[in-house]
Amino acid sequence: MLQEIILAGFGGQGVMSMGQLLAYAGLVEGKHVSWIPSYGPEMRGGTANCSVTISDEEVSSPIITEPDTLIVLNRPSLEKFEQDVKPGGRLLINSSLIDIEPKRQDLQVLKIPVTELGREILGNNRVSNMIILGAFVELTRAVSLESVIGALKKVLPEYRHNLIPLNHKALETGIELAKGREFLHFRSCG
Amino acid sequence: MAKVLMKGNEALAEAAIRAGCRYFFGYPITPQNEISQYLAKRLPEVGGVFVQAESEIAAINMVYGAAGAGARVMTSSSGPGISLKQEGITYMAGAELPCVIVNIQRGGPGLGGIQPAQSDYFQAVKGGGHGDYRLLVLAPATVQEMVDLMEKAFDLADEYRNPVMILGDGILGQMMEPVEFSEEKETLRLEKPWATTGAKGRNPNIINSLFLDPAELEKHNHHLQQKYDRMRKEVLWENYQTNDAELILVGYGTSARIAKAVVDQARAQGIKAGLFRPISLFPFPKVALQEACKKSERVLTVEMSMGQLVEDIRYNLEFKVPVHLYGRVGGMVPAARAVLEEVKRLVNSGKEGKTHDNSF
């Protein structure tokens, strides 16, 4: 199995760490992984994106031009990357900050207002990235929840380990949402 | 040791420490800053020295000093900074000082940009500074290979008393992949009786690249050339699906990763494609390239430059096989899909008996 994912949003939304977690979770499962960040004169509030490959085979090219899945946390990211998604691919949208409809008709789309959910349910919109990551895990089974939790322990410095339960809760929130909303929010392939 | 996920730049830095490097002198530039960031923290932990110099020129001359004293020493930079270091590099080549220089390439010319490129190929493999000299140049394509080649780089530098360059690019420096480090070995390092370690009880050693007598300088040049000839046995390369390939893609570093994906996609469509990946760019694996291309009707280089590697491929194939170029520049990265289109175009034009305007 080969999963190519592009994750994009504002700098500060946790796009890079979400991608790193995903890659680390793949590594925990003994898969071949790679993570490439966009880099440049970027800052909080600017745009950020990263490409993650998770594969059973050796990763030949880590550069993703046609992702299987696109996860977007803000509107400019949707506008920038929507056209690149593989035909019939998945699109996960943060509907709290994206008020436009995707143009493509062939994609499986899941919209979740993760910024609001983070704030309302968990009292912290900084874990909204974990909610959408949970949804991704549920929909694709690219990696397991346990592996993501295992990855959190490796990626977070020790003094931040007190945040693991909150992140765990956010991931589970996403998983539940994806379970419940899958059929409501997924358009069939056109 | 278990595998860890690391950025190429950080992995290179850790590998340098494990190869016994205890001195780093550098000056910041994107996209290689994680190397100095990592070493600034790690070197003091192992009793080493990290200096962020006032300029690239200062840094490379500190490398000259440390290498002259027999230390394992390294510097790193990207395009514009490597250009600034050229004077020091040619002095080191002339004085026969071992060191490792990392170039995480970005788009040029001039200040250019900060996105990945491979347009410093000529500068790396043809010398770079003034005078007749060569660097050993190693081009990793994965984060693991960045680690594996680092120890080799230091060993080669000591063995040949020559600067060694690791030629990467912005993607390799910034990307994370799983890596495994071997335990630091207490290997027997080469004695350096030529080093300036204090002349108590022996005649002073002199480290210099100044030869005012032309006959002496010619002799020194001949000595260097013999050394570069001896380096030929250090060639490294990778063949991928080349045995029956009618079209061979050639690329190094990140471009080779893309080309590998293109080979798989082409094969899935019934096109017999293969990849030849030079790992040592100097010395160049000429015999291996010729062997890999024996059955191929054409060759396509994939590179992030407007055509530098392609010239060496034509030269090393002795102009016997048509060699084409697919190049992107300025920080743009070749897309596998576009390269595949070029492969298909070349294969089809070959069937129709047309030659391509871009080949020789």
Automatic annotation (TrEMBL), chain A:
Name of the featured protein: 2-oxoacid:acceptor oxidoreductase family protein
InterPro entries tied to this protein: 2-oxoglutarate_synth_KorC, PorC_KorC, Pyrv/ketoisovalerate_OxRed_cat, Pyrv_flavodox_OxRed_cen
Residue ranges constituting the Pyruvate/ketoisovalerate oxidoreductase catalytic domain according to the UniProt record: 11-176
The keyword Hydrolase is assigned to this record: no
Top-level division of the source organism's lineage: Bacteria
Keywords for the protein's UniProt record, in alphabetical order: Oxidoreductase
Any Pfam family hit: POR
